[in-house]
Design goal:
single chain, MetI-like fold, 2 strands
Length: 283
């Protein structure tokens, strides 16, 4: 082996070692959560704590998920209802707005687009109180409307992502469709969106994950326990002696996290393509 090949092999080994260490660091909390979810109550107070349970307590999962007063299937249905309606509206409305910025030329469009992007610098907590006052005035509290309706007005980051992706699509396709008599909406839904699958999946994945783990919104606007979502329902395990129910909390947490992990594993290729191609523009 030459000196150059040896340096290349050492560099590659160092990179793999660094990736392994970083991966282990990120995976450690999840591994500990899974381990804790299978521990019997007798293992919770062991010092030092053990990673491998003395006995696999499979009963933790049905005990945590199917309690009469804490019935998690209801929270799953509520979360899916909230995620589907809000994420679907957010992606659709963002695509429509982005098409206008990418294809429709009008005075002040660049200024307006900059103004839209500037809203990303405004923390959600700043507008929380005014929004709550408005929704309370129109009797939307303890409903899903404050969580779903605002999503149908788009998201600044998704508008940026779609706009950048639309700019990579040749305008000749638009011109050909217009010659055939297509309207802007027909061009958007029949040409632009079918060619923007990576961007759609990227925005949908980000939106679904964000809504799935949304805690502040449902906590503020939903008062009834029967209407709550998973992120808030996990706090129902919090009692003064929390260690007594830590394994049940972790069991419910594992079931809550697994759908998001599966979603990312299936969509990671589209996610990478959608993010990397947003920096490209047609010449």
């Amino acid at each position: 082996m030459t000196a150059t090949q040896r340096r290349v092999a050492i560099g590659k080994a160092a990179r793999y070692a660094a990736l392994f260490v970083l991966g282990a660091m990120y995976a450690a909390p999840f591994v500990w959560m899974v381990s804790l979810s299978f521990k019997p109550f007798t293992d919770l107070n062991m010092i030092p704590p053990n990673l491998i349970p003395t006995r696999i307590a499979w009963e933790n999962y049905p005990t945590a998920l199917f309690q009469p007063m804490l019935y998690f299937p209801t929270f799953f249905v509520n979360t899916i209802y909230y995620v589907v309606l809000s994420s679907g509206g957010e992606v659709l409305s963002s695509a429509i707005v982005a098409y206008g910025f990418a294809r429709l030329q009008f005075r002040g469009s660049n200024v307006l687009f900059t103004l839209v992007l500037s809203t990303m610098m405004l923390p959600y907590q700043v507008t929380l109180i005014p929004e709550y006052v408005i929704f309370k005035y129109i009797n939307w509290i303890d409903t899903y409307l404050p969580l779903i309706v605002p999503a149908w007005f788009g998201a600044a980051f998704f508008i940026f992502l779609f706009r950048q992706f639309f700019l990579t699509i040749p305008r000749e396709l638009d011109d050909a469709a217009m010659i055939d008599g297509a309207s802007h909406l027909q061009i958007l839904f029949r040409i632009m969106l079918p060619l923007s699958v990576p961007a759609i999946i990227t925005c949908a994945a980000i939106s679904i994950v964000g809504r799935w783990q949304d805690f502040i919104g449902p906590l503020i606007y939903i008062n009834s326990n029967a209407k709550q979502v998973l992120a808030v329902a996990l706090t129902f395990f919090s009692v003064p002696n929390q260690a007594l129910y830590a394994n049940l909390l972790m069991a419910a947490s594992v079931v809550t996290v697994v759908p998001v992990i599966i979603l990312f594993l299936f969509l990671q290729d589209y996610f990478v393509r959608g993010v990397t191609m947003t920096g490209l523009r047609e010449g």
